[in-house]
TrEMBL record:
Pfam family, any one: ABC_tran
Keyword Acetylation listed: no
Species this chain originates from: Salipiger thiooxidans
Protein name: Phthalate transport system ATP-binding protein
Family: Belongs to the ABC transporter superfamily.
GO molecular function: ATP binding; ATP hydrolysis activity
Gene3D superfamilies: P-loop containing nucleotide triphosphate hydrolases (3.40.50.300)
Keyword NADP: no
Domain ABC transporter span(s) in chain numbering: 12-246
Residue intervals passing through the bilayer: none
Length: 264
């Protein structure tokens, strides 16, 4: 395995006045490797520290102590510029409502500052087309559906052609039908590129994890531990109702019950 991201021996706690020792421990001696080119799904209950983990990988949040926060063999703390190889997709689309979808993507390009300006127009066209929004990029967020807004937010990240995409429950606020369509669009985009980007996708949705992941990392409630790590070696495109995906989903439900003490 070639690790794209390696977190080594992370400790993180937050102040919490309701506890006798005044702290809530989120991670203790926590380590995690994410394989290059994988679609890694971090699956865990709300509050276990999934968003926190993305923020640590991105360098936005510093753990209390860590032996390593390593991207491509280099520690992020000695090379903060590494975070410009990463782009975020959040739970809500977070588009600027006074800018068109294309201008929002441009905002993403300006933010990371990794693509030369003369390529912006082509990149924007290319990725809006790739998610089926070729004709909608000149519309404003309020003129399009929630699913289209979330697609635009994926484009805003993807135009940077980042080596790592950090996706924090990007479809959890969408209705199930739209979410299913988004998963198809996302995996089509991801598998269409010869050299696949590394995706770190956070969710608390077990069936979503089974459908999307090449690698599943299941986390327990905080202080969070990895209670299951599993490859999902199924071809693309995947169907949510295929026997194979349903079998993985079942196994994940059992693992949650047995290893994390969470029943469904
Ligand atoms: N900046 C912060 N200050 C204090 N507590 C925080 C902060 N960020 C997160 N937490 C706490 O850390 C825990 C994990 O948060 P988070 O990573 O957002 O969970 P998840 O994304 O898995 O739902 C939660 O209990 C949350 O309240
Ligand atoms: Mg979260």
């Amino acid at each position: 395995m070639i690790p794209k991201v390696s977190l080594d021996n992370i400790d993180l706690s937050f102040p919490d006045a309701s506890r006798p020792d005044g702290r809530k421990v989120i991670y203790e001696d926590f380590s995690l490797q994410i394989e290059k080119g994988s679609f890694t799904v971090l699956l865990g209950p709300s509050g276990c520290g999934k968003s926190t983990l993305l923020n640590i990988i991105n360098g936005l949040l510093k753990p209390n102590t860590a032996r390593g926060i390593v991207i491509d063999g280099t520690d992020l703390r000695s090379e903060p510029d590494l975070s410009r190889q990463m782009a975020y997709v959040f739970q809500g689309p977070r588009l600027l409502r006074w800018k068109t979808l294309a201008e929002n993507a441009e905002f993403g390009l300006r933010g990371l500052g990794v693509q030369p300006r003369e390529k912006w127009r082509d990149l924007i066209d290319k990725y809006f087309r790739a998610v089926g929004l070729g004709d909608a990029q000149h519309l404003y967020p309020h003129q399009v559906s929630g699913g289209m807004r979330q697609r635009a937010s994926i484009v805003r990240a993807w135009v940077n052609e980042p080596q790592i995409l950090l996706m924090d429950e990007p479809f959890s606020h969408l209705d199930e039908i739209t979410a299913a369509e988004m998963r198809r669009i996302l995996t089509n985009l991801w598998t269409s590129e010869e050299e696949r980007r590394t995706i770190v996708f956070v969710t608390h949705d077990i069936s979503e994890a089974a459908q999307l992941a090449t690698d599943i990392i299941m986390l327990t409630p905080a202080p969070s531990k990895i209670c299951l790590r599993r490859k999902v070696d199924l071809p693309w495109p995947r169907r949510m109702d295929s026997d194979e995906v349903i079998a993985v989903e079942k196994e994940l439900r059992h693992a949650f019950a047995e290893r994390a003490g969470i029943g469904f």
